[in-house]
């Protein structure tokens, strides 16, 4: 699963690539791959930040600086909003009329698709973890019962 720092770095990198291309005179219509990377990174960042922490991370988060995590998340969101505003300004200045709005519709579709994919991936990882935990618990339980039976039958 992608972590917030990686998603944020991808968002920032895609924004810088688009900004740099515009400054060198490239047309926005030739930057579809960079714009797609930007949309995927923004979707990933939104999905990750919307996930609720698990019980273990809540417990250890309180012990290891939950305040720092919240502060980091806040400033990442602020920077992501700034990058989105920067992108909007570039499109309004260098794009055709209505291009930002059309792009936002396309990005919304991509964002939903990416978010669904990441949610499925997160759910799959949770299922795998639960299966492993339950398997180990059952093996431990059966081993414990077998050991108790062995002790009771050989030492009575």
For the report, how would you describe the main beta sheet? none
Shape: elongated
Reading the helices and strands in chain order gives HHHHH
Give me the secondary-structure category. Answer: mainly alpha
Q: Structurally, how many domains make up the residues?
A: 1
N/C terminus separation: 53 Å
Number of separate helices = 5
Strand content: under 5%
Query: Over all CA atoms, what is the radius of gyration?
Result: 24 Å
The helix content is over 70%
Overall pLDDT metric: 78
Number of strands: 0
Oligomeric state of this protein? single chain
| Low-pLDDT segments | 55-63
Blueprint (SSEs and pairs):
Blueprint: H1 4-23, H2 32-50, H3 55-63, H4 66-94, H5 99-154
Structural write-up:
85% of the residues lie in helices and 0% in strands. With 156 residues, it is mainly alpha-helical. It has one domain. Helix 1 packs antiparallel against helix 2 (32-50) and helix 2 packs across helix 5 (99-154). The protein is elongated, with a radius of gyration of 24 Å.
Could you provide a short overview of the structure?
This protein is an all-alpha fold and 156 residues long.
Observed structural traits:
156 residues, 0% strand
């Amino acid at each position: 699963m992608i972590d917030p720092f990686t998603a944020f770095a991808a968002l920032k990198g895609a924004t810088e690539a688009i900004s740099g291309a515009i400054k060198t005179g490239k047309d926005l219509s030739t930057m579809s791959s960079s714009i797609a990377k930007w949309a995927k990174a923004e979707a990933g960042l939104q999905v990750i930040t919307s996930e609720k922490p698990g019980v273990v991370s809540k417990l250890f988060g309180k012990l290891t600086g939950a305040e720092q995590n919240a502060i980091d998340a806040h400033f990442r969101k602020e920077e992501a909003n700034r990058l989105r505003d920067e992108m909007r300004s570039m499109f309004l200045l260098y794009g055709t009329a209505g291009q930002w709005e059309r792009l936002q519709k396309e990005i919304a579709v991509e964002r939903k698709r990416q978010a669904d994919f990441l949610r499925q991936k997160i759910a799959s990882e949770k299922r795998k973890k639960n299966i492993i935990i339950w398997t180990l618990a059952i093996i431990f339980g059966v081993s414990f019962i077998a050991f108790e039976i062995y002790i009771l039958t050989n030492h009575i």
